[in-house]
Design brief:
Blueprint lengths: L2 H19 L1 H11 L7 H20 L4 H20 L5 H17 L5 H4 L2 H18 L9 H28 L10 H22 L1 H24 L30 H47 L23 H10 L13 H21 L10 H12 L7 H12 L6 H13 L1
Helix pairs in contact: 1-3, 3-4, 3-5, 4-5, 7-8, 8-9, 9-11, 10-11, 13-15
């Protein structure tokens, strides 16, 4: 797809949004000025004005304001006369087509977010609310109030989706740079808005929904009643030819009330349908609630990376593994203590070099954990020797971490030499004396 085709599609969609947001300006006067067959052709003509304006800007390079104004005048006068002829109503049709064509030509050069900011969305929604309230009391507009209501719902949905997306992009990377956001985050954000719109629609159309469910339940109950009653009915015998058919007095005959079990069945069906709808909504909210915390964590981590809030160290040719200094639970400490018990003055059978290396590292972590509990602020970026110096400055004790333990810890963590049992025993003796 070429850039020209992409520009046409963007202009069409942007013009469509503007027509929906300001639909009362297009529809209410046309409801009284045009016949019913032309009422929906008129918004399409205005939308075509956007495309004609964009086409003129692409073909004739309308880079000056007076050029765009002359092109909009030519398009609006020609299209309006071709649509309604020479009539007094041109005073209404020409200005609107002129605005559409002029804005379409500007869309080729300027950003639509600057041409149609969030304030314009708010003005469009206010226009829908005021016009719906006023014209709902006018009997002459009863045929168009439903169209105005549905287009108002569409305008509300578009406002929530577009304004929310723009606010997310603005908060993601403010400034003049191009915002970058993962499509997954935008997809979850759109689903959130759609669920919100669904809840708003359910609340707004709750009376109509209740009436629809009640009618459906009555129809099902009547079908079940007819199905059960069809077997019990007998084919009536034809009347004899000698007797005249009795006269049916429809006016005096009263309709039989439904049986009690039919009323019960109808209520059971109504409550059953509402229960299924409620369970479905609760399930949707439950699934969305499970996804929301994970989405928030991912979005927060992504934002931290973008805003450089994490303490990321530069790579200098070697990436050190991160030492996790945590306070182990009591059960883990007890298990570790029992695993270090000697049998006959020696370590248990099966302890190899890996176990001894891990023992050295565990001793180092235990000293750090004890210091952290006493108030030491451990810095993960420091090397073991730098940590030893930092501990001396913090506490003033030179034997907080023995130098021999530091050397063995570096061998156990970074070196390939095997730690012997004698070295481990010597470190333990040094710790007992300190």
């Amino acid at each position: 797809m070429t850039s020209r085709d992409t520009g046409f599609i963007k202009t069409f969609l942007q013009g469509f949004v503007e027509c929906v947001l300001y639909f009362p300006v297009l529809f209410i006067p046309a409801f009284y000025l045009l016949p019913e067959s032309h009422r929906w052709v008129w918004p399409a003509l205005v939308l075509g004005g956007y495309l004609l304006g964009y086409t003129g800007a692409r073909w004739f390079k309308l880079d000056r304001q007076f050029k765009a104004t002359l092109w909009a005048c030519l398009v609006s006068i020609t299209a309006a006369i071709a649509f309604v002829g020479v009539d007094i109503t041109l005073a209404y049709f020409i200005p609107l087509i002129f605005i559409a064509s002029y804005r379409g030509s500007r869309m080729e050069q300027a950003s639509w977010n600057l041409m149609f900011p969030g304030t314009y969305f708010l003005i469009g929604l206010i226009l829908f609310g005021v016009s719906s309230f006023i014209f709902s009391f006018m009997d002459s507009f009863q045929g168009g109030i439903s169209s105005l209501t549905w287009m108002g719902a569409a305008a509300l949905g578009l406002t929530l989706l577009l304004v929310n997306r723009q606010l997310v992009l603005d908060e993601t990377l403010p400034g003049n740079d191009q915002p970058v956001l993962e499509r997954r985050v935008l997809r979850y954000n759109r689903w959130f808005i759609l669920v919100l719109l669904l809840l708003v629609a359910v609340v707004a159309f709750l009376p109509q929904l209740q009436q629809w469910v009640s009618d459906m339940a009555r129809g099902i109950a009547a079908w079940i009643s007819g199905w059960f009653g069809s077997g019990a009915e007998q084919t009536p015998e034809p009347p004899s030819s000698s007797e005249p058919p009795p006269e049916m007095s429809f006016l005096d005959e009263e309709t039989k009330p439904p049986s009690p079990w039919m009323k019960v069945l109808e209520q059971v069906l109504i409550y059953g349908v509402f229960t299924v709808i409620g369970i479905g909504m609760i399930y949707v909210l439950f699934r969305f609630g499970k996804v929301l915390p994970k989405l928030y964590r991912r979005f927060s981590a992504w934002m931290n990376r973008m805003m450089n809030r994490q303490n990321v160290q530069p790579s200098l040719g070697y990436e050190d593994e991160v030492e996790n200094i945590e306070h182990d639970p009591a059960s883990q400490r007890l298990k570790r203590m029992l695993s270090g018990i000697r049998i006959g003055g020696k370590f248990r059978a099966g302890e190899g070099s890996e176990h001894l290396n891990e023992k050295i590292r565990r001793m180092y972590r235990m000293i750090l954990s004890r210091s952290i509990r006493e108030g030491y602020n451990w810095k993960a970026s420091l090397t073991p020797r730098e940590t030893e110096s930092d501990l001396k400055e913090w506490n003033g004790r030179k034997d907080r971490i023995p130098q021999s333990l530091i050397e063995l810890y570096e061998e156990a963590r970074y070196g390939n030499r095997t730690i012997t049992e004698e070295e481990v025993e010597r470190i333990q003796l040094d710790r007992k004396h300190t």
